[in-house]
Write a structure and sequence with these properties.
CATH class of chain A: Alpha Beta
Radius of gyration of chain A: 22 Å
Largest sheet of chain A: 11 strands, mixed
Shape of chain A: globular
CATH topology of chain A: TIM Barrel
Family (chains A, B): Belongs to the NtaA/SnaA/DszA monooxygenase family.
Structural class of chain A: alpha/beta
CATH architecture of chain A: Alpha-Beta Barrel
Keywords (chains A, B): Flavoprotein, FMN, Monooxygenase, Oxidoreductase
Organism (chains A, B): Devosia neptuniae
Oligomer: homodimer
Protein name (chains A, B): NtaA/DmoA family FMN-dependent monooxygenase
Number of strands of chain A: 13
Strand content of chain A: 5-15%
CATH superfamily of chain A: Luciferase-like domain
Number of domains of chain A: 1
Order of helices and strands of chain A: EHEHEHEHHEEEHEHEEHHHHEEHEHHH
Number of helices of chain A: 15
Largest interface: A-B, 70 and 70 residues
Domain Luciferase-like (chains A, B): 32-385
Chain lengths: 435, 435
């Protein structure tokens, strides 16, 4: 069921025009692409050519109406992934869904349905929504506090796991000829918790993976706890080796404390790659794709984002990590801000260096295909990460370039497969099947 | 956009092993079929061969755990239809969904996503759940009374229509080169009603049909009102011509009273067809597929279902319709029971005759392919019905037989197309596009 040799796992984000908000000006395609199912089929086929384990959809159930931005979350990702699974073989789908604004029965049913339809290729990324614009689409209640959202998310997944296991045709005994089935293969779950009261059983049977693989993305204390309890693939932002090792240890230690085997956890952070024939060329592309226009522009953005007075800003002075710790109660994803503070705690960096180390909160790799492949393998080889979720600045361009130039190097180095092996996501990630 | 010549519309139900609970013993295939996506693909391809307008999925989000029954609602029908739409061209999908246990934003988003992915082939059948087993999967609240459920369903569709229209890229003005889009093409709906408070806009744009076609199935007073307000394809049980004409007039008169053009309403009741080389052979198949075993068995079942004391039961006495009116407050679909009482009100029938007029609450046609085609065209020709939703006792067998033997007759009579015309369900049903 699992491969015996450890290998690099790679997912790739394929939301709309790519990960970076300003890079669409330099991409191939039309603006109509963002709502065209056929465009997502082409991106998925491109990812399949690169033997990616999965395409990744982030999501918010709200339209970002900034006239200077672009709609980033449109077609429902579970619906879209279901159609793509029917069109493209092998590859998996990471689908982001809100535990705050779904009911466990419906979500368990829909996701198990897609896992069955795809033959075991679904990964669900359960998030507890933190955006007031999302809350306003689901009633007049204000957003609950973060702790309550995570407590609800944890119970949500407890219930979902009970539902996913509640009807298993493999439990059928001998069925007499006048009967269609052995109804004792299904049993009520009778869950009565703090947030949910649900009888069950689920009306979709156990699927090819037992249940869909569970991804988890929060890095706040509540997020770490949820990852330790339920997370199998951990999406996070890791900008340095010591920060990554500390994060992985924290999640795995918490899992052990909860009585869970940490062998079922994979660390697969986001990664932004910008390739050039030389590093200098990659730096210039970074300045363009980021929207900053120049290195000075990147520095000005850094000062603004971190509340530094331009009058006091020396881009060549070493930064103090403690000054960059995000407020745990702010209304955005805490984990996104933690990456920078941890990077600056573990490494002595100036702002001029720091702006080249992350983009869109994720590890940034700038350089030639060889340099990028080396840097990916570097963090993977010692177990700091198990793989990456590539976030291409532009889709399709930066996916195509990565598949053409970086993937063959990873394959030649023997760390990445040349074709799909195993059938399910659990096989490919070496994750255990639920009992 | 619409065809000028009226023609017969046909859908076909493809839940699990077919419509009748006891007919699986006489079908081709294995029990594993009911959870096999590939089985549903084969059924959809069969329906496509017969140029059916749509396949139809009824649904309850609960597992029927009767050991003597069979699971009838398993894989989520919207998820399944989305995969099928990616695999089979042209044909539409009627997907049943609960307004009681979904949020309008999520439902509007998912359905618009599937309508876009399928190129305008989605019909949603909105039902207000009446089953306590369903309620128990969604919390500890008891089922609200019928009137409240229908009021909520009506506001649910009001909100969904606002959301479906809230982002329309066709409203975009000139977009300056530094911008990705004209954000004024999307606007908040700011809905504040009795049941829902929703800001919007939807993050999926207007689809190829404006919004999915809305089917409606209830025949209680609340159901008629919902049909008149929102229904475009009315699924119902019509057992006789006068009952059908009275029902159609009632819905259309109510629509007019509400200021709606009744030209946008199609009456497409359920229909059970059992074919034989002779009528006698069809009668024997009816006795088998119904599970009754014989005509006496059918009569005994009739007496039991209608609370008639066997000692007082004369199967050859004319029945009184007034004795068969269902209780409007009982915990099941009122419309299902109304069909029989209306049949017996409009026609003088004995029990021996009545048991051959409906099966599974729907109009039953027993006979040769020619007799069946004649009876279908008979009700269609004078506008009593606009078409039918075929409910095959056995799937795939009775779909295959209908496609092979009845469809060619309907085509030869010039009432039914030989191939798919138009692109969307609205085109094929001659339904208006929302403004």
């Amino acid at each position: 069921m699992t491969t015996t040799t450890r290998r690099l796992n790679l997912n790739v984000g394929i939301n709309t025009t790519g990960y970076l908000g300003n890079a669409w000006k330099y991409r191939t395609g039309t603006k109509h692409d963002i709502n065209d199912p056929d465009y997502y089929r082409r991106l998925t086929e491109l990812a399949h050519k690169g033997v990616f384990d999965a395409v990744f959809f982030s999501d918010h159930p709200a339209l970002a109406t900034d006239p200077n931005g672009r709609p980033f979350h449109t077609i429902d990702p579970l619906i879209l992934s279901t159609a793509l699974a029917a069109q493209v073989p092998d590859i998996g789908f990471v689908v982001t869904m809100s535990s705050s604004y779904n009911s466990p029965f419906n979500l368990a049913r829909r996701t198990q349905s897609t896992d069955i339809i795809s033959g075991g290729r679904l990964i669900i990324n359960i998030v507890s929504s933190f955006n007031p614009a999302v809350a306003a689409n689901f009633g007049s209640e204000p957003l609950p506090p973060r702790a309550a959202r995570y407590a609800r998310a944890s119970e949500f997944l407890d219930v979902a796991k009970k539902l996913w296991a509640s009807w298993d045709p493999a439990r059928e005994g001998e069925v007499p000829p006048e009967r269609f089935w052995d109804a004792s293969s299904a049993h009520a779950i009778d869950h009565e918790g703090e947030y949910f009261t649900i009888k069950g059983p689920l009306n979709v049977p156990r699927g090819p993976q037992g249940h869909p693989v569970i991804a988890q993305a929060g890095a706040s204390e509540g997020g770490i706890d949820l990852a330790a309890r339920h997370g199998e693939i951990i999406y996070c932002n890791i900008l340095s080796r010591p920060a990554g090792q500390a994060f992985g240890k924290k999640v795995k230690d918490r899992a052990i404390a909860l009585g869970r085997d940490p062998a079922g956890i994979r660390i697969v952070p986001g990664l932004v790659v910008i390739l050039g024939e030389t590093r200098e060329q990659a730096l210039r592309k970074h300045e363009l794709f980021s929207g900053a226009g120049s290195e000075d522009g990147l520095l000005a953005r850094f000062a603004k984002e971190n509340g530094i007075d331009p009058a006091d800003f020396d881009p060549d002075a070493v930064l103090v990590g403690a000054n960059f710790i995000p407020d745990q109660n702010r209304l955005m994803a805490v984990g996104m801000g933690l990456g920078l503070s941890e990077l600056l705690t573990h490494e002595k960096l100036t702002a001029r260096q720091a702006v080249r180390r992350s983009e869109g909160h994720h590890r940034l790799l700038l350089g030639t295909p060889e340099e990028v492949a080396d840097a990916i393998i570097d963090f993977w080889a010692d177990g700091t990460v198990d793989g990456y979720t590539l976030q291409p600045p532009r889709a399709p361009d930066d996916i195509a370039e990565f598949v053409e130039k970086v993937i063959p190097i990873l394959q030649d180095r023997g760390v990445y497969p040349r074709s799909y092996e195993g059938k399910t996501i659990r096989d490919r990630y070496g994750l255990p099947y639920p009992a």
